[in-house]
Design goal:
This protein has helices at about 5-15, 20-25, 55-65, 105-115, 135, 145-160, 165-170, 180-185, 225-240, 255-265, 295-310, 340-345, 350-355, 360-365; strands spanning about 25-30, 30-35, 40, 45-50, 75-80, 90-95, 125-130, 190-195, 220-225, 240-250, 270-280, 315-320, 330-335, 370, 380-385. With about 400 residues, it is an alpha/beta fold.
Length: about 400
């Protein structure tokens, strides 16, 4: 993989770093915290913190640095193996849970948050740091709905080809915290949401299933996919490429989008880079027992198209959270020689695509993109590059 692509990945993840984003958005002068020109008096307040999502640890570090001396209680919830060596204040509770299908720890996290939202008064000030993955990492089932029911529904949604908006609309009806329930439980507290968006268009009712989407909450968007795409664009612009951010709202079936992106870069002159942000989907049957993810599938479909048309281009896909589907890869990279290399190693690209089995295909070719847990989530970035002549 070209070193400039490595630099582009680094730039995208740095632009989406939630710790840096909070440091830009939270401004404290002694007893006053200002967010988006709105001042909050920190004196004589009962200050509580809830941070949830794949970006929870970097967010928690920022909160600890800026507000650690005034936070009375805190719960930090993230995905397994996403904590690193971070040291948080001793009285802060750290909970690790499952994603994308919630587990017992997810319900424990939801119960703990419900407890933290109890007994609030008008002096209570709650900061909610929210990033992608929160819908699964923290669940508080409605009455007569069990965790096992939520798990079955989540698994069905993941296989259905539904986009994140459609999935979170369903989740909101199953959970006491989602759909603004978080804010309702906290009444009459003042709730301030700091939100890192992993959803196309940044709709507050969809991100994390609308935890703080409520008229009485004050929400601020601290980062999104466009920032990651713009950072990638800067890397290539400085290197002399003609760059276009085609969209930050890429959705639909991954295979179809992969073929389209290959076609689009094929129509451009040498020295062109096309950037796409968003999140595609994969529709699978209940019987499918394969391994892959939307970004790997998009890349595989693109590889076949590049091979068939002999388009001299490279295409890379990246899930900014470091996880594409139930794999340790964030995506994959391909070029016009990928399918030829696969044939030489006895691999069938078309069969792998039909079976949604992209991970072992790319693993054998050493074409996976594996940054590990990134501590952020602003959806996906796809880069299509036609080399400079």
């Amino acid at each position: 993989m070209d070193s400039i692509l490595d630099r582009a990945i680094t730039a995208a993840l740095q632009a989406a770093n939630p710790e840096l984003a909070l440091n830009r958005h939270l401004h404290r002068q002694q007893h006053t915290l200002t967010i988006a020109q709105h001042p909050y008096d920190l004196r004589d307040r009962d200050i509580r913190l809830i941070v949830v999502g794949k970006g929870a640890i970097p967010m928690a570090r920022a909160f600890a640095t800026i507000l650690g001396d005034v936070i009375d209680s805190a719960v930090v919830i993230t995905k397994y193996d996403h904590t690193g060596n971070t040291q948080l204040p001793a009285h802060w509770q750290l909970i690790e849970a499952a994603h994308p299908v919630p587990d017992q720890n997810s319900q424990f996290a939801g119960d703990r948050v419900c407890q933290l939202l109890e007994n609030c008064t008008e002096k209570t000030l709650i900061f909610a740091g929210i990033s992608g993955g929160a819908s699964a990492l923290m669940v508080a089932p409605q009455a007569r709905i069990s965790l096992s029911m939520i798990q079955v529904i989540n698994e069905a949604l993941l296989r259905s080809g539904a986009d994140i908006g459609e999935m979170n609309a369903v989740r909101s009806h199953l959970d006491r915290l989602k759909g603004g329930g978080f804010v309702e439980l906290a009444q009459p507290a003042q709730v301030v949401g700091l939100i890192l968006s992993d959803v196309v268009g940044d709709p507050l009712d969809v991100i994390a299933s609308g935890l703080t989407n409520h008229p009485s909450a004050q929400n601020s968007l601290i980062g999104n996919n466009r920032q990651a795409c713009e950072a990638v664009a800067q890397v290539f612009s400085k290197a002399g490429y003609a760059v276009e951010i085609v969209t930050t709202e890429l959705t639909g079936e991954a295979q179809i989008r992969g073929r389209e992106i290959a076609t689009q870069i094929g129509q451009r002159p040498a020295g062109t880079v096309l950037i796409y942000g968003g999140e595609t989907t994969v529709t699978m049957t209940a019987e499918t027992r394969s391994k892959g993810g939307r970004n790997q599938e998009l890349a595989l479909a693109a590889a076949i198209a590049l091979h068939q048309r002999q388009i001299p281009a490279t295409i890379l896909t990246l899930a900014t959270d470091g996880t594409d589907g139930p794999t340790d890869a964030a995506g994959a990279w391909v070029d016009s020689s990928t399918v030829t290399q696969a044939i030489a190693q006895g691999l069938d690209a078309q069969l792998a695509l039909e079976q949604h089995d992209s991970y072992p295909f790319f693993a054998q070719l050493n074409h996976l993109v594996i940054p590990g847990p990134t501590g952020t989530n602003v959806a996906d970035v796809t880069i299509a590059l036609k080399p400079l002549t």
